[in-house]
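thread: overnight batch results

M.L. [08:02]
morning all. the overnight job finished for the chain we discussed friday. pasting input first so we're all looking at the same thing
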Amino acid sequence: MDILTLVSIDVVIATILIWLALKWKRKEKNIENKIDDFCEKHYKKIWIIFGILIFITVIYKFGTLPNYIGVDEAGMAYDSYCLATYGTDRYMNSYPLYLTNFGSGQSALCAYIAVFFIKILGPSIIAYRMPSLLIYLLGFLASYFLVAKSKDKKTALLFSFLILTCPWNIMTARETLDCNLYAGMFMISLFFMNRAEKGYQYIIAGILIGLTLYTYCLAWITIPIFLAVWLIYMLYLKKIKIKNIILLGIPIAILAMPLIYFLLLNFGIVHTEQIGIFTLPILSDFRSQQIGISSIWKTGLESINTIFLEKNTIYIAYIPLFITGYIISIKDTIKSIKTKEFKLNALITIAFTTLLFGLLLTRIPTANKANVLYIPILYFVTIALIEIFKKSELMLIILLILITSLFINFEYNYYTKYSYVPGNGWYDDSELMKITNIIENAEGTEELNTHIMVVRAAPFIYTTLEKKVSPQEFMNETEEKIYHNVAKEVTRVQNYHFYSVMYGKDEIKEIEFSEKDAIFVISKSLDDIVKFIENKGYKKQEYGSVYILTNDAINLEI
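M.L. [08:03]
and the structure it wrote out:
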């Protein structure tokens, strides 16, 4: 933990204590009207600042940073390319409503949004990553208008500032994982649900909620729990009619039905994978057994620790503010129930609490799985800050300076460190696509075999994506062990051969070296293999965390 983080935690705790002391004094200093006046007077200037922040945080070098691409991101990108070009995923599944990916599945909405951008921009990293940026920006706007229309402008502006400067939001807007769309889509859905009055508005809200189910499989658990509690709350307050519940529920049910069928298919209850032009695949690694009420006490503490303390999610200094804001909002929820008066604090409290409960039904080993919680967490931080700001202009200035300092520190580290990887991450790679491009563009390499042994998960996907192999070629020319049409271990894609780090060393040593007609891409850590190939007369060139070994006749411009 760095010095700035430690200082920020101390400052926040001290500020909360001062606020509590001021709160219980008889003569209270209230500057709320001054803050409201400031926001009204400088509203346009604040939005210009927000525009600059959006450019700095997520637009500048979009598609270039991060410089790596994750294995699941590459899998989604390749499926998107196949869908845009051929109408199937890489396994020849026609318009799948759930992607197979590497066997354990991947939600499909992200891929289909990417298809739209591939059609416009062509297949590129920018097109593959546009779904995250689009849904992030729409979710940001929905969050602002949700609070602005239900509370006030100052709260909405502060909430927006926290969203724009949050490390988690900045990073996930720049790289595409299917699950990361859940947060933005949920806030968009929440805005339309909260504003719905007429029948067609409930239908629109229902469509958006139904689409949200296609962002991440954990939404299948968390969304129903949230909807159940939200409906009880709204019915109790008499804020929704039965006919509107029906109008809301019809599109949700229609969009949920294919996913219910998909679950039945993978439980072996039904057996047809093709429904019209759409496919619902059988997964080789169906992880339903990971979900259960026992997870709450078995892995709950581990999950809570991941959600709040994983690096580069929220600033650790926000945790005391989150707790303060959550307590304030729980009190408002109780008051709302007693007075039968709708409060936005109650809505967000219901959303956060039910979503958290649903997520804890499974183990949360990484923050990606809990992404939907981070915007509600920032809302509670906002509520705490607003209450503190009411009592002291000095505390307002101190905390805003502190947040800005944390943000600047993160941005500096992101642009200089966090968005780069040396290429030796198991699930991330910054080299194989570039190496494939170098080999493909070099003279005299068309007929050569390229042998790849690197410390990566599914290294074939990077080469396949860069070469833009058609799904027909992938299925017909790819050597792999197959179970339910899922590649369990890909060993060849066209003239590119892949070797397991654990089991493939003997296979490389058995290659015929007499003609020296091959290229080798080997991780630097595999010294024995590198030396073995060098002894066969190959020269090595360094490229990041790997060596590229060729004979004297081949000239790769590295």
